[in-house]
Write a structure and sequence with these properties.
With about 50 residues, the chain is an all-alpha fold. Helices cover about 60% and strands about 0% of the residues. The protein has one domain. It is built from three helices and no strands. The radius of gyration is 17 Å and the shape is rod-shaped.
Amino acid sequence: RSDTFGEEVTQLWDFETSVEQYGAFGGTALESVRQQVAAFRRWLGDEQK
């Protein structure tokens, strides 16, 4: 909550909404991050062979 901005701005700039809007590979959405972690784990597995 901010003394400068009203409740409508706080609702508009919701953290989760902000993060979830970037679903492309490399983005911040939860599913995107899960895909990035899975790709990294595959890469690590390949590097250890």
